[in-house]
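Handout, tutorial session.
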Amino acid sequence: MTEYGALALIPTLVVIALALWTHRTIESLLAGVVVGLFMLAPTDPLGLGAEISLAVMQNETVGWIILVCGFMGSLIALFIRTGAVSAFTEAVIARVHTKKGGLFTAWVLGIFLFVDDYLNSIAVGAAMRKVTDSFRTSREMLAYVVDSTAAPVSVVIPISTWAVFFGALLVENGVAPEGQGVQAYIQAIPYMFYAWAAILVVPLVIVGVIPAFGPMRKAEARAATGQTVPPEAEHIEAANRSISAKEGVRGSSAEFLVPMVVLALSTWYFDYDFLKGIYLTLVLYVVMIAVRRTLTVEETYNAVLDGFKTMLEPLAALVAAYLLDEVNTRMDLSAYVIDLIAPYMTAQLLPVAVFLSMGALSFATGSNWGVFVIVLPIVVTLTEAVGADMTVVIGATLSASTFGSHACFYTDATVLTAQATGTTPYQHAITQLPYALIAAFFAMIGYLVIAWI
């Protein structure tokens, strides 16, 4: 066992307990980090805190997230200022006449923007708020639909940032030969049961086969009275509405859809580098604005800056989540969980055990890609040791990573979806979790069934 053993769970348990009590994300995360710092360095927690903070802020992934999310906020702000988002939502409202139709539109649009889950969450959330509001749909329900077609769709369609990232990791860990990482990833797609289940549960919820229950039922009852925005999310809605269309400007839905297509295609062209895709799309859109004289130079600059500002709160939550992840890494939380399950593994049980344990770990740490990097070498070793099917186990590991991305209230997907749809991360997570657990149950049954075929 690792040095801290079960004590490594304490910081994460503090975060979860405080979040359930206070309904606040950032404060809960920071409290868990502080507890972890005192456990790691009781004589100098401040020094370790400074060290960890610098390590996180110098992390290439964190820098990438800040730039990607910030400039996606800028792009959405330009869409709003030029009237493109309003034109798109008006066009959708004119063609969609029911609540179910609005939610199905969000689901289909999310599938269309499969190239990256960040693009999916931010763009679809911003575009569909007004549409679903018109049918008195709660923002929590919209957030659930958007989030369920973000990471899960990006996972099962291999033309995405997820496929490139995880394909490279499969090569690094000897699972696939050089240049064959994405091919190995594609072979595991049929076994990514959680992602498939999460996507397919959505239409069942929309049509009512799986009814709204628990916290989601309360949210929908509130929205039926006309209050679609949760009371605790009014500051988020105010931030989203602080940017409005320029008076006298009338955009077109094509001004929203075409840049989205350009963003998806340019991301693909640059070998799934989403940051380059955003830069190119943003530059081209600014040039178009200048040529059409829709906004002045000053108005364009202010919109870019204001859009970036709207992402400051979710980015703060993400940085806090990475601080917690760094604390958990130094306490060897992942190694503790692996050591705990390793003695009980057989070839038949390994896929379901990996899904459950890694899913719980990804949920607890708020990290999906990060956990995968840490645990993949151990999972590969376990798979070879017990003689399990490597393709199935990789599918189970990616399913676990997707579950963590989908269900945890402080992971990147949850935080960004909440911001884009106008709810808090806690409200989004607590209403989505029951449906995520339904998908997780189907995935677990799938791994048990395939183990004995």
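The second record follows below. Compare its token runs with those of the first.
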Amino acid sequence: MLFNYVIGVSLSKKDNRGKVNKKTLLTIGIISNILLLGYFKYADFLIENMNSLLNSHMSLLHLALPLAISFFTFQQIAYLVDSYRGETKEYDFLNYANFVTFFPQLIAGPIVHHSEMMPQFSKTKNKVKNYHNIALGLFIFSIGLFKKVVIADSFAVWATQGFDVAVSLNFFEAWATSLSYTFQLYFDFSGYTDMAIGAALLFNIKLPINFNSPYKATNIQDFWKRWHITLSRFLKEYIYIPLGGNRKGQYRTYSNLIGTFLIGGIWHGAGWTFVFWGLLHGIALVVQKIWSSLGFHMHKILAWFITFNFINIAWVFFRAKEWNDALKVLHGMFDLDKIHIAKVFLKNIIVTSGESLEQDYKTVFSFQNPLIEYFHELVLTFGLKTYVNLYISEMILFGFIIILFTLNSQQLGLQFRTSIKISFPLYILAIFSMGCSLIIMSLNTGTVFLYFNF
């Protein structure tokens, strides 16, 4: 923090009489930050690849990743660039330190801009209790907690089973696995963001919106305007535009897009699957730009269907620990020769209390006809309920209903009023969300936010 603050202050000075010119100083600042991030996050990745290419046996460092290093590195690089551009003011070190380490959004964002945060920290009015902000903050926090604990962690069970445990997957299992992770990631990360926004409001600090119903997007550009909005902003302002943006011709625009998303991919994690995920999104944006430039149009429902399925398939690479895990899931998703429900997977998604129910069903309805047996397996997987958990198919349907037909947390927040008479249904929703979350948290241990990994 001290290093970046000193350089930022030097860059923001109007005179340029220092021993080192501003461009060189900015370069030193950016490279220092990137090298620090690279050492902790990518050293073992580089060693593994060197060992593979050179057939060497260099030992891995196994470094502990400093908490939130990806986020505070981007945040401070943005501060240095803005200081170089003359877009910052003279800030005292305490406010700058608060800007970098503000705990609600420190771990996983949003990636905040200095101009959004610094004035709020120094504003006298924000140091007085604001009961509307406290009530609104608790409301948004409760929605985020429900998303994480009740919804995301439910999908996590099936996603983990499919990606990390199952040796092979058939058609239904593979789609259940991919969709489970698609919903897990959204509800986990947007839930964390809601909790960060809600916690910040308790201190009268307003964080920027980071999600705006991204799975309603009808093209990939629209998706990135809705998903992890602050990361998209950073990639655009500090990577895409400095590379030339769309100012240097059509082909340069396309290469800039792909290059930007390759960087976005590797930023998320040290692995070739992340790079490939970024490449897929970069290519998709190029295809979408070409499509738009040709004047083609697509029906809204079809456009949504294609966009959502592309995102869902791309997430497979984002989630997979190894290439083989991704290929296993994709093979199952498009292997139409094995459209059946495996008994092993079935037992894994049915909790212990439901096993007797499954056995009773099999005993009563034991048929020899293959067609009836096939229908029988579908009923077992998609029809039976247990007293503890909902089946994966019902949860996926529930997920689709939420992402497509309900208001998101920010839209609900706009309807929130401190008056109980006006916002009584929202108060009930908040109490219900908090209650369910606390009950499940008391029964569960070991949960973790996905974006801690990035």
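Points raised in discussion: The chain has two domains: 2-101, 131-336+394-453.
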